[in-house]
Specification:
heterodimer, A: 233 residues, alpha/beta, 9 helices, B: 172 residues, alpha+beta, 5 helices, globular
Chain lengths: 233, 172
């Protein structure tokens, strides 16, 4: 009996230890078969993103919302994304896949960097089951005027499905083909979706247009539409 | 007292250093090719501006910092009238309709060029807007600025005047 209690306690302690190694995230449970992992940008999680997560959950898509700068007490800077513990992020992806649901990661801006690198740490079979949607990813190591861009090495992405959502009104839009080529060279299966009449981070702009305000209220519909177009269901 | 004076001098040096960091001096490299059209559809290249100092500004109508600095570029044009200086604003990857919608609200006296497919933006390796290149009269890139500024005053005006000062008196 005492041994049995010890076994139970050990199991509980181990489970806690595993949980403690995962980044702190906010869950929006739902009963559907899709689990969307929403990784906010280096500027942190915003209110419209939380609203979209609630709206998605109400439509049956479970959402786990992760704010990396908050979870790891990092400054709100692009460079902070290089300090994210990749193994913990990879374990988070595995924990999501352990739910048995179809896992789709949405990473915003520079958060694309740790998400791709964590995906590269997965076993090939695990990576094959993962879909990653990158919203205006910033994967530059060097981007200086008059010099060719240099992109960071995300590691091996073989088997990974990646869709880039690019707001049309962005200085990065002309560079999208080069970015997609770079991801494809690392083994990813790439596609793109263009968000017309929108700017980067349109849901959190200081001076949004009427259209951007309206679109930030229906981000859930945009993401569901993109998921359907993409076929990563 | 001596410590206070040293602190003041250091602060001034740091402040001037931070200001100077805006413009990046380049070692007179030949400019990339510019192949664009103006709003009337006429083709334009850098050869059209040879012999003049050129302020080439990459912008877009959706970019608030770009629009913020536009009035100062217009004031610069007026202030430098008669000088061998050409201001050219190249809109990056937008349609003529989008550009014209902005220009109907903001009257500008310098030429606006179009780059609807972003090919010039890529050839000049522009990754952020606004980005501005200052070319000398021989068509060489001498300064680069990423981000907005007030073009008719301070460091910006000083840099432009220094390029104009290189020209022989006959060209002015």
């Amino acid at each position: 009996m005492r041994f049995f209690r010890f076994l139970l306690l050990s199991g509980w302690a181990c489970a806690f230890a595993v949980r403690a190694d995962l980044p702190d995230f906010q869950a929006f449970p739902a009963t559907g078969q899709q689990l969307l992992l929403w990784v906010a940008s280096e500027r942190g999680r915003t209110e419209p993103e939380l609203q979209a997560a609630q709206q998605l959950a109400a439509q049956g898509v479970e959402v786990w919302s992760l704010d990396l700068v908050n979870a790891y007490f990092l400054p709100q800077l692009p460079g902070s994304m290089d300090a994210v513990p990749l193994q913990e992020l990879a374990d988070w992806l595995r924990a999501a896949q352990a739910s048995g649901k179809r896992v789709i990661v949405v990473a915003v801006a520079r958060a694309a960097a740790p998400v791709l690198r964590a995906a590269a740490l997965l076993e090939p079979a695990e990576r094959q089951r993962l879909c990653v949607m990158l919203m205006y990813p910033n994967l530059y190591t060097v981007a200086e005027p008059l010099a060719a861009p240099d992109y960071l090495d995300p590691g091996t992405l073989t088997g990974l499905s990646v869709r880039v959502l690019q707001p049309r009104r962005s200085a990065a839009t002309p560079w999208l083909p080069g970015l997609l080529d770079h991801l494809a060279r690392h083994g990813a299966t790439v596609s793109q979706g263009m968000l017309e009449n929108l700017r980067e981070g349109y849901w959190a702009r200081e001076t949004p247009t009427e259209f951007e305000i309206a679109e930030s209220r229906r981000m859930d519909a945009m993401l569901l539409r993109e998921l359907n177009t993409w076929g990563c269901k | 007292m001596k410590r206070l004076l040293t602190t003041c001098v250091m602060s001034l040096l740091l402040a001037s250093g931070a200001q100077a960091a805006g413009f990046e001096a380049r070692a007179a490299t030949p400019a990339p090719e510019l192949k664009a059209q103006d709003l009337a559809g006429a083709p334009k290249t850098l050869a059209d501006y040879r012999g003049k100092v050129v302020l080439l500004n990459f912008w877009a109508s959706w970019c608030p910092p770009c629009l913020r600095e536009m009035p100062s570029m217009e004031r610069l044009r007026v202030k430098m009238a008669g000088q061998p200086l050409t201001i050219v604003a190249l809109d990056s990857a937008e349609t003529p309709d989008e550009v014209n919608a902005y220009l109907s609200r903001m009257k500008l006296g310098f030429p606006i060029l179009l780059d609807p497919d972003g090919s010039n933006t890529k050839r000049w390796n522009v990754f952020a807007l606004p980005t501005t290149f200052l070319l000398d009269a021989r068509g060489r890139v001498r300064y680069v600025l990423t981000g907005p500024t007030e073009w008719d005053e301070g460091e910006a005006l000083g840099v432009i005047e220094s390029l104009l000062a290189e020209l022989p008196a006959a060209a002015k």
